[in-house]
Every structure is written in C-alpha cells, then in structure tokens.
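Homework-ish question, so no full write-ups if that breaks the rules, but can someone show me the predicted structure for this set?
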Amino acid sequence: MNDMTVVEKTVETQRTKIAARNVNVYYGDSHAIKDVNVEIEDKTVTAFIGPSGCGKSTFLRCLNRMNDTIGTCRVTGDILLEGEDIYDKRVDPVQLRAQVGMVFQKPNPFPKSIYDNVAYGPRIHGLAKNKAELDEIVEKSLRRGAIWNEVKDRLHSPGTGLSGGQQQRLCIARAVATEPEVLLMDEPCSALDPIATAQVEELIDELRENYSVVIVTHSMQQAARVSQKTAFFHLGNLVEFGPTGQIFTNPEDPRTESYITGRIG
Amino acid sequence: MTDHNQTPAEGDAPKRKHGASLLQLTDRTKRRNAAETRFKAYGIAAIGVGLLMLVVLVTTIVGKGLGAFQQTFVTLEVALLEDKLDKNGNRDIEDIKKVTTFGYAPIIRAAMETKVETLGIESALKGKDMADILSKDAAATLREYVIANPDQIGQTVEFAFLAQSRVDGYLKGRVTRESIANDKNISAEQLDFVDQLIEAGTVKKTFNLAFILGADASDARPEAAGMGVSMLGSLFMMLVVLALALPIGVAASIYLEEFAPQNWLTDIIEVNISNLAAVPSIVFGILGLAVFINYMHLPTSAPLVGGLVLTLMTLPTIIISTRASLKAVPPSIRDAALGVGASKMQSVFHHVLPLAAPGILTGTIIGLAQALGETAPLLLIGMVGFIASNAPDSIASGLLSPNSAMPAQIYEWAKRADPAFYERAWGGIIILLIFLVTMNTLAVILRRRFERRW
Ligand SMILES: Nc1ncnc2c1ncn2[C@@H]1O[C@H](COP(=O)(O)OP(=O)(O)OP(=O)(O)O)[C@@H](O)[C@H]1O
Ligand SMILES: [Mg+2]
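A: Not a homework solution, just the prediction itself:
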C-alpha cells in the first residue's frame, strides 16, 4: 500500500445521520445483503468499497428506497434517517428521495435543457415561489456542481449535449438542487476521465460541508482521497467499517487487507 | 532430389498452419468466398423480384385507374323554358320541385337538337337517340341546378353534362364498334354522332373532380359515381378510432408497462394482447355485428359502428407499439426522475411519455392506416353494398347515418358488372393508396425526426 497516499485528515466525529440496523436484502431467493449494521455520519464522506457483486449498490439503493422499483427486492431490518425509520409504512419514498439525493454511475441528464435539468427537482417540490427564485436555485446548484462557468452561457441548450464529465457534474447539480441532506453516489466517476474525476472529487470534498455523502467506488485511491470513513463489503457482508486512514493502513480483517492489496477483487 | 534443390530452406521455415502463403487462397477460403458471393446474388435477386412486382403493381394500378379521374362531358346550351319548368310563373320553389326529372328530359333533348342544328351536323338519329349519349344523370343535374337557381328560369344556360359510360368508354378506348355489337345501351350510329360532336368540340374528356368529391351512383350511372361520400365515411370512422383507440391504448400500455405488477395476470393479459393483434379482422366484424348492432342496437352501416369495430382491431397494434416505445426509453431516465424525488406518475408523464411520444404516434398512424384499408369487418356491419349517395350534413349524421368507406366502396364497384365501374374501382384504389402512402410517409418522417435523443 505504499502507492496509496492517505491524505491526513482530521476525523472529527460527527452526528449520526443514517443508522442501519440488521439490514438484509433479498432479490427473490438470493440473499444480497447480510445483516449489515452501519452508522453514516453527517458532514462526512463515507466510501463503500468491495469486489464487484458484493452488494454496494444494493445497500446504497436501500438508503433512498430506490430498490422499491425492483419487484423482486425485499428489505428487512431498520434504516433510520435522523432517527426515523425510512421503511415505516407511513413514509412516502417520494418524500424521502427529496431528502436523500442520488447520483448514478452513468450520467443520466434528462433530454431537456441544462436549466430544466436542474430546475426540475425544485419545481416538483415547490422550492421556488417565482422565476427569480428558481433562477437563483439553478445558479447556486450549478455553482456547487462546479459547472456554472462552463454552462452559464448556454443554460437553454440540451443537457445531453455536454461531455460525459460535464453531464455527471450536471447530475450532481441536479441532485443538490433539491437541498437533500444526504447525497448518495454510485460510482460517479466510472465514466469519467482523470481530469473530470479530479473535478468531481474536489466537488465531493466541498459538498461535505453541507451534506452527508456516501460514495461507492472501485478505485481505492479515490476512496482514500475523498472519504473520511470507509466500509468494506464482501459477499453481502459488511466486513469492516472505520476511519479511512485506518482501513487502508491498518485493516483489522484479513479479507480487507487482501482486497486493498489486490489479492481478492 | 530435385525437390531439395528448389526448397533449400525447407528445414528452417516452420510449416505454417493455414496454407503456405497469404497470397494464395486456400480451398477453404475459396469455398467460403464463393458461398458468400452466391448468397449476395440471391439477396440481390430477391430484391430485384420484389422491385419488379412493385413496378408491375404500380403500373397496373395507375394504368387501369388513371382513366377514372377523367370523364367525358357534353357541352350544351339549355333553354330553361318557363312554360315547362314553372307553369304558374311565380317561382314558387314547391311548384318547381313538382317537375320531376322526366319533365326535364324534353328540355335536354331540345337543347341537343338545337346544338346539332347550330353545328350543322347531319345525322340520321332521332332526337331521343341523340340525347341518349348523355348520362341518365343529366336530367337530375339540370333539375338540381334549377331548384338551386330558380331565377335562371327563362334564360339559356351552358351546361357540361356527363356523357353516358359507353361514350366515355369510347373516348377512353375501352368501347369499340366491335364490342358494342350486342349492346343495347349504344349503337354504331350513336358513336358516329359522337365522332361528329368530338370534331365540333362539343364532346370532350376533362379532369373529373366529381370522382374524388362526389357520391356513389346506382348501377345504371357509373359515369356519375364518385368516392367523396365514402371518403367522409372513412374519415368519420378514423375519427372514432383515433378518439377511442389512442387514449385507451396509451393508458393501457402505460399502466401495463410502468405500473402493473409482474404476475400471472399481467402475463396472461400480455399474451392475449399479442394474440388479439393476430386475430383476423373479420372476427372483429362479426363481434361488432353481435355486440354493437344486435345487442346495443346501434344503426347498421353507420361509421360509428365501423369505427368501434376498427377500434377493437387497432387497439392491440397501438398497445404493442406504445409498449415497445415505452420500453425503449432507457431506465436511467426513470431512475433520474425518481432520484430527485419525482413520483412514479411524474416520472412517466414528465419524462418517459414525451420520449416515447414519437414512437406512439408512429404506431398510431400505422394502426390507423391499417384500419383505413380494412374491408372485411365492414362487410358484416353493412357498410359494403350500401350506395353512399348523400353527404352527411353534420357530425352526428356523419357518425350515425348509413355510409360506406373507401375500401368498401372499391369492393362494391369491383363487384358490379359494368366495366365502367371496374375502372372506378382502380381509380378508388389510387385514392386509397395515396392516403395510405401519405400516412406511412408521415410515420416514417416522425420516426426520423424524433429519433432517440438521449
Ligand atoms: N435487480 C436485481 N435482481 C436480482 N439480483 C440482483 C439485482 N441487482 C443486483 N442483484 C444481485 O445482487 C448482488 C449485489 O449486486 P450489486 O449490484 O449491489 O453489486 P455491486 O457491489 O454494486 O457490484 P458492482 O461493483 O459490480 O456494481 C449481485 O449478486 C447481483 O447479482
Ligand atoms: Mg454497483
């Protein structure tokens, strides 16, 4: 692990934002997530790492109930957001998703204008009273997405006409426009070149000031660079969870060690 | 040992697996290439045969049908005599209407005699035989004109009357002196007379708008028959199909594709929709007869019933194409919408449906085009064999009063004995094909224009 420089970060302990207790996920008969307990802190970047198919995306999608759209998927256990069970019968997943935003692996802007992409969330949630307020939200979100300067002159050209990296930053801007408390990112840089990746990583670090960010990544360098906490999944189990520095330099579990040194994966 | 001298390096070069040299084709490669060449030749031949058929089809249709768009007219100056048409002289419309078409026959005969006199044509024919080269429709045309313009009584007005179908056929080359040997409708002397009139410019073949816009006519007057009214019948049926099949089909597809749970019930529904698309259209016809006419007592021959039957037939097509275009919208778009907190319905109506719309529209147009050309179900609900002689005067009567439809009209004409109707059937096919080709072109253009943009 000599090539992996873990940026020294002061890991102040933060409030718990999301707490998962004994979470199990099944796709039909197959058991995809096995008894996972994890606490995700506020104003912290938490990275999920692990070999392909170990259930990172599955667990991430539980956190905003995107799994509800998959007919065969069944979730047991409790996931608490600010102490409230998000799988409670009274919870409308639509309301939950406004608070727990998501950025997907493949950039997926709507085939609409850049402005409309960002304005869509605020519009459906009624966050702006008038056009001026909406304009303001759009600008603020695009600035947070670190893409404002590139698109400010062509807000009304289609979002699908941007480059891959720009599209992903647009998607991040779209996600932050609804003022979520938590931002889930499933391999947000897997379709990006190193420059765009660096931009997105920088962005994630900035987002940490306001949000709790959970990022799934296959790049251990990336996890080391951007996260404060890291969770290592293997075959549906949460093997190890702790401060990023500790996971990468001094893992407790032999499986974690073999994964980060490249022996399983 | 000569061998050895020719290939001195035999021992050094390793024996190559796929033949000795790249510059030399192996037998295997040659066989493969030959097979490929053969296959390409078959393909080109198949396309050639297809194109040839198309050319034959189009030339036949155009060749046989184009004549229907031209008609022979006879120009006469008619003196609208007051003592024959309005004896009382007070222009009372009810009095004028009392004069039947028989009352107009002498007026036309007189006009014909005058014409012959002024042109100085010598003919052995009697006045009645001369007037017989006109259509039986001529008197009716004249009567309609007088009823519409009673103030013209007493004047002399120029009319272009339809010539009867044999004369029309003579001008189009369909009728010859040999072919009429046993024909009661026309004699060789009359044809000589027609020749004289042609020379004088009184008998002329011109474009016939009435074929496109006019009504059907009875067996005795093929020259007066037109497609117009049955076109309206088709139009009203298509309105019914569009108004019912599009919303029902799209709503059903959206529900099935986006909301319905995946279980045995939806599976059964899905299989059945695909099966319905393959059900012969005549089955829908008999269903329409049983349900809409016998049970619900809707009027026979009405475009409303025709539209309902065609709706049943078109629904599966629309549902299948709508579902296909909904499926073609990438799931990432739905995820994106749900991810920012849109509800399922918002994600469908704000994002998925607009992207699927061109596909839905294309499918609908193709479904409509199919329905437009459908004849069999109309047989059973009485839209075939009906003489569509009156244009509907309102939307309600357009839907409810008996009418025919374009393909039914064509079938009807093709069935009648007189060859003049046969020509009109081909002409009708040209009109129908123009509609179908236009609709399909529109569908292709839509598909091209809105090709996937994500
Ligand atoms: N929609 C689904 N239906 C059934 N099984 C699924 C579904 N999605 C995922 N799985 C299964 O659940 C397990 C976990 O998948 P998941 O997508 O969470 O893995 P992952 O850790 O995100 O992998 P990757 O790094 O390749 O994205 C896998 O075995 C996968 O086959
Ligand atoms: Mg994944």
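Now go work out the reasoning yourself. Hint: Chain B has two domains: 69-207, 228-450.
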